[in-house]
Amino acid sequence: MSGVGAASFEAPGAAGYPACGSSVADSDERRLAWVYLSRVVQGPCAAVSALIASVGVVEAARAVRESDLPESLRPATQQRRGIDRAARDLELAERIGARVVTPDDAEWPAWRLLGLARLDAGREGAMPLALWVRGPGSLSACTERAIAVVGRRYNDDYGAQVTGEVVGDLVAQGWTIVSGAAFGIDGIAHRVALSLGGSTVAVLARGVDRPYPAAHDRLIAQIAESGLVVSEYPLGVPAHKHHFLARNRLIAALSDGVVVVEAGSRSGARNTAKWARRLGLPALAIPGPVTTANSVGCHRMIREGEARLVTRAEDIIEEAGPLRLSQPDTTESAVSGNEALVFDALPRTGSRQPRELATASGIALPEVRAALPVLEFAGLIGVDENGWHRIRHGP
C-alpha cells in the first residue's frame, strides 16, 4: 500500500480540507474527484471527509478507487468505489440546469457549514462532500440571511395561517426561507415565499433531478426557477429513511435559525430544531391550541427548554437576526495572526480563491476559511463570483 495506507493516513487536527497548489489546469481533475466521491459515499461520511482533509481530494479519490486505504476506511467506500461516472454526472447536471458546488467554489457556503465542520460528527452529522444545486442564485448569497421554517406534514388551518403570516413578514423584510419541500408546513412556507417574490431554498433527501414527494414536482420546479433546490445526494439517488435525518442538519446549517410550526410528539421538524441547537443556532417554536395534537411537539420543546416560544416574525428576527454590534475597525491593524497572513496574501487588485490563499499564506485551508469571515466582518475584504478581494477604504 503506497498511497494513504494505515501508516500514512492521519486524521487532521481541524475539520476542513488541506492546502495544496491550485491552478486552472487541475480544477477539472479536482471537480471530477469531488463528484466521484459524492457518488461513492452518497451523503455525509466523516471518514472520507477526514481522508480528504489529510491528503487532498484528488489523492483521496485515487485511494478510494484503488482501495488503497486503511482497513477502517474501506467499509464506507467498498460498495460503490467501482462506480466512476463523474463526467457523465456533470454532463447530465448541465443538461437539466443543475450544477455541483464544492469547497473549491466561491458559492460554497463555508461560513454556514463551519458549525458542521466543528462537530464531533456521526453518520448523519459530517460535512457534506459536495452539494448539487438547481437554480439561478449563488448558494452562499441566497443563505446569507435565511430562516428555516419546518413543521408537520398534515397541518391544520391554524398551521397554514400562522405559516403564511410569519413567512410573509419574513420575506417582506428580505429573509430567505429554507425548508424541505415536504407536504404540509414545508410546502406552505415555500409557496408563500414564491407568491411574494421572495427567495426560498428547498433541501432534498434525494437527487435534485428526482423531486420528492412526487406530487411536489411542480413546486420544486418553481423553486428552481427563482430560488434554489439543494441536495448532497448525486443525481438519480432515491430517498432512504436515514437521508431525511441527514437532510435536516443541512436545513438547519443553511439558516440563521429554525422555526417549527406544528409538530407531533415524534416529528422530523423537532429533529431539525435539535440540529439547530447543536450548531449553536436558535431553535424556535410557535405554540398552537392546547386542544389539538398537531402542536404537542412544539409545546413539549418549549416546556423542556428545547426551543424558545415565538409568535410572529419580529420575535424570530430578534432571536435569529444579526447582532447589533459596534462598527468594526476597518484598519489593517485590527487583525493579527492567521487573519493578518490571509489578508497579506490577497493582492491589491483582483480576487483569490481560498485554496490560492492557503498556498500564498502558508497556512492550512481550514484556517484560511475560518479567517475569511473574520476579515469580512472587519470590513477589510469582500467576496464575489471570482473569489475574495480587498475592500478599499478612503481615497
How would you summarize this macromolecular structure in one to three sentences?
It is built from 17 helices and 11 strands. With 395 residues, it is an alpha/beta fold. A 9-stranded mixed β-sheet has the order 1-2-6-5-4-3-7-8-9, with helices on both faces.
Describe this structure in words.
This protein has helices at residues 24-41, 46-55, 57-65, 74-77, 86-95, 110-117, 139-142, 157-172, 185-195, 217-226, 241-253, 268-278, 296-303, 313-320, 337-345, 354-361, 365-377, and strands at 98-101, 131-134, 146-151, 176-179, 200-203, 228-231, 258-261, 283-286, 308-309, 381-384, 387-390. By secondary structure, it is α/β, with parallel strands linked by helices. It has 3 domains: 24-94, no CATH class; 133-320, 3-Layer(aba) Sandwich (Rossmann fold); 332-389, Winged helix-like DNA-binding domain superfamily/Winged helix DNA-binding domain (Arc Repressor Mutant, subunit A), CATH 1.10.10. The protein has a 9-stranded mixed β-sheet, sandwiched between helices. A two-stranded antiparallel ribbon has the order 10-11. Helix 13 links the parallel strand 8 (283-286) and strand 9 (308-309). Helix 8 (157-172) packs parallel to helix 9 (185-195). The radius of gyration is 21 Å and the shape is globular. The N and C termini lie far apart (59 Å).
